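To close the chapter, one final illustration. This time we ask the reader to focus less on the individual chains and more on the assembly as a whole: which components sit near each other, and how the overall shape emerges from the parts.
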Amino acid sequence: MGFLYFLALLIIGYLFGKWAEKRHYRSIHEREDSLRDLLVLPVRVPEPQHLSHDSTLVTGSVVISVDYFKTVAASLRNLFGGRVGAYETLIDRARREATLRMQEDAQLKGAELIYNVKYETSRIGDNAGKGLGSVEVLAYGTALIPTR
Amino acid sequence: MTHLPGSNPRLPDDINNSHTSPLADFAFMAAGLLLLIVGLSLAIGWSATWLGPHIPLSWEPQIVIGKTEEKSDHHQKIERYLQNLTTSLASETGKSAIPVTLHYLPDVDLPNAFATSGQNIHVTAGLLNKVSSENALAMILAHEYAHIEYRHPAILMLEQLAHTLLFAMLGLNEDGAGAIAGNTGLATLMSFSRKMEHASDIRALELLLLRYGHTQGAAEFFNAMMLEEDYEETGGVLSLFASHPDTNERLQRIAGYTTDGELTPLPDWLTSATEE
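The assembled structure is written out below.
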């Protein structure tokens, strides 16, 4: 009985996770295309033509949790070692989503581009025993807004 | 002259994301884990079989089922009888006879007998109702004694302990240490393996042959069992047959050894009292 419960969770986790991943990547690609001209730069020092722009902080943050299938797959990886493929796709999506949200924030503020982009991450719900913890990915930078 | 790019780059989808099939990956690892556990289990079983008989008898924890404070005279009389019968069987092994303690379970109607850790043998009232000769009863007692002689309870405990440790080490059991303490005590209530049952059957026949000069009656109890099918697991204590090799198979094996002889009847007081 316990095993059936485990199997059901595994299958639900896998199917739902697969479906969500596919849908999310489609959305990421579309939004990246539409924001392609709003530059995101790691550079710290602005180019001369941007020296008279206004500047403001923009942020984008995502909190993600893993599905049951990924948890089990990753705990198996813990035994054998190696690349945790199940988490890689999740974190890749989280980073790109955070960047997109930051860009959307900048777009709302009328920014032309974002300098000095940085990422940070933190774990949430780590002390929820063996429950599924979550990870926050935060992207932030300095948006430069043209002055009139 | 600007050094800025015209637009954001198109991010590659497959550098940070391996896109390997998670199912294939999962199946591969699960199979590997299973193989590992099976392999280690076999190793544990093998080493426990080797180590078990070397553990001092006194190290086995005492596990007695249905302990009662007050025993009726009749109860005590039956226990004494069972004790004497078993001791006389065990003494046939000569120098190395192991002292065992017999326990009678007057309230259990299910025909059953089982050996537990600490050299204890339990016999239910249902079993005494079922047997019609001393030889049949002796066969069962000799079988349980053989388990103890071969140190099967100790072997089971070792296996259980090693398994719990293994699972705790692999992180598959959340309350590792507690589980070790809790589970090993119950180990002897778990099933003996078919191999153990097989060995005990043979040994019991040997003891019977030594004691009575023949093995007539050994198959009787099993014959009776064949007619009834209600020997399922009850109340967490495995019935004599739940863990045992197919009754039919055992019967044939016993038949192969059976030699003719005169049956010893059960004492009158026992048969009349248990049928009340």
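Residues 41-274 of chain B form one domain. Chain B has a mean pLDDT of 77. With these observations in hand, you are ready for the problems at the end of the chapter.
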